[in-house]
Every structure is written in structure tokens, then in C-alpha cells.
Amino acid sequence: MTPGGDARGPLTDPAGVAALLRYERARGFAGVAPDATPGFSGNKADGVRSQDEDADLIRSAQERLHAHALRPDGHRRALILVLQGRDASGKGGIIRHLSGAVGPHGLQTWAFGVPTQEEAAHHFLWRIQRRVPAWGRIAAFDRSHYEDILAVRMHGLAPRVVWEGRYDTIVDFENGLTAGGVDVVKVMLTVSQEEQAGRLRERITRPEKAWKHAASDLADRRRWHEYTQAFEDVLVRTDADAAPWYVVPSDRKWYARWAVGRILLHHLEAMRLEWPAADFDPATALAGLDATTALIAEG
Ligand code: AMP
Ligand code: MG
């Protein structure tokens, strides 16, 4: 049942984790247990240690991406990581963790809230298109173009015919990105009712979290099952091998961070980017370096 699995030890390799968490139509969104830890059989300390090792690997892979982007003959690649999920499912925390690992030059983060007046005056993909990362970079999206289906549908912001048409528009948009060298990796977090209640309660009762509380989160929570259906519809209609969805259990924050890191690593490794060959002659450059040392010594 666990491809790439337990024989490898307590932690499953990135490709194995990605395979376990990949959206499956038969299982659906609701079929993924929010408190599970697929591919992970160590303890929490193992997970945290593995996160640190993965952070180094992700940083190095992003540097290879960037090194290629700087070279006229290098590969032109970039990656968008989309995070979706209910309120308090941990989207922001995962992105903070990743940007800490990679750094702001390599991983840019964008949060998409209620469209501003300017954004609302454009096609819904306009604000997304502006955040497509440059070659060599990763962009993490805290919510995304999928809100133009989800939020619009759930809050009745446009007629059904409008948001219904967006599934195909989004598939075409993402196909264009991936065909052109921008990978699109999509994560739907799943949190249990109990865990979400605990996290929303903290926002209400703890001063340092109160800024995250929104009355609309409670209104949305009441419609739990309708949201589940809306997520199922997004997944079934927009999952593609070129722009795959992953469903990540996120009741345990450390697991969700570990798993999303592994998924990202899997996609970076799948690009198979080596360090580009030097575009200078090392012997000549070394001789030049030694010459500068000699000149400095002479004063
Ligand atoms: P938060 O992620 O807590 O900052 O909340 C952002 C809010 O903006 C959520 O309630 C989203 O549903 C809402 N939102 C994001 N994108 C859109 C959109 N395109 N149309 C309407 N509401 C949106
Ligand atoms: Mg919120």
C-alpha cells in the first residue's frame, strides 16, 4: 500500500511521499484522514530533523534553478506552489517554514485575499499572472486563482455559469505555464473539525492570535460539508499530471510542513538540474586569482 515505503526506514523518500499524497479520485478529499501521517513512521523529532535536512536540499535545488536561469544556455524553469485549505488549516505556517528554509530571494510568497478594487477591475487571472515567478525562482501562493471558484461559489459573488467556466480556464492557464517551464504544484490541506475548532478558539482567546480571527471564518465553518463538496469538485476537475493536486493531512503541523517540503523537493528533483558547467577556464581563472594575491602582497 505504501509505494517507496517502509523498507527505506522511518522516512519515505520524496517521490514516495508525493505518490502517497497525490489526489486520487476514488479516495477523494474526504477520504484522506486529517490526523494521518502517510509515509512517516518515525517520531516527531525524526520529522523535525528531516525537515532541516530537506531545507538544505530545497535551498540547494533552488540555487541550481537560479544558476541555470543566469546562463544563456541554461534551463529556464520556475515553480509555483499553491496552498489551499480551510481557515486555520495551516497554509501560512507552512509557507513561513519554507521561506525560512529557502530565503526571500529564492522563494517569494504571495497571499491572495478578497480582490482589491484594482484586481476586481481585471480578469481573475490578472493578479495571478503578475505573480508568476521569474526563471530560477519559486513562488508560494497562500490561496490562489482557486478562490475565484471556491470563494465566489460559496459566497455567491458571481452566477454559477461564471465560476463553472473557470475550472477549464484554470486548467488551460496551468497547462500553458507548465508547457512553458513553470511547474505548478498544488496542495489542498485537510484539517479535522475538532482541530479547526481548537485553532479558531485560540484566535478568539489569545491576544497574539486575535488579528487572525475573522467572523466570516465561523460562517464558513458552519458550511463545512458544502466546502468539502466544493473542494472535491475543484480536485476532480483540475487535477492533471502536468499540474497535480496533493491532499495533505494537516492536523499535525509538523507533519504537514514535512510533507509539503517533501512534495516540493520531489518536484525540484524531477527537474533533474545539475549545476551548470563553468563558462570560464578554471586554470586561467586560478592563475588570475594567484596574480591578484601576488599584486596585493607587493602593495
Ligand atoms: P485569509 O487567507 O485568512 O487572509 O482570508 C482571505 C479571504 O479572502 C478568504 O476568506 C478568501 O476566501 C477570500 N478571497 C480570496 N480570494 C478571493 C476571491 N478571488 N474572491 C473573493 N474572496 C476571496
Ligand atoms: Mg482567515
UniProtKB/TrEMBL annotation:
InterPro entries (alphabetical): P-loop_NTPase, PPK2-rel_1, PPK2-related
Keywords: Transferase
First-tier enzyme category under EC: transferase
Pfam families noted in UniProt: PPK2
Transferase among keywords: yes
Enzyme Commission (EC) number: 2.-.-.-
GO molecular function, one term: phosphotransferase activity, phosphate group as acceptor
Domain Polyphosphate kinase-2-related: 52-272
Domain of life: Bacteria
Gene3D superfamilies: P-loop containing nucleotide triphosphate hydrolases
Residue ranges, annotated region (Disordered): 32-51
Record bears the keyword Glycosyltransferase: no
One GO term of the biological process aspect: polyphosphate metabolic process
NCBIfam families referenced in this protein's UniProt entry, alphabetically: PPK2_rel_1
Name this polypeptide is given: UDP-galactose-lipid carrier transferase
Organism, scientific name: Brevibacterium yomogidense
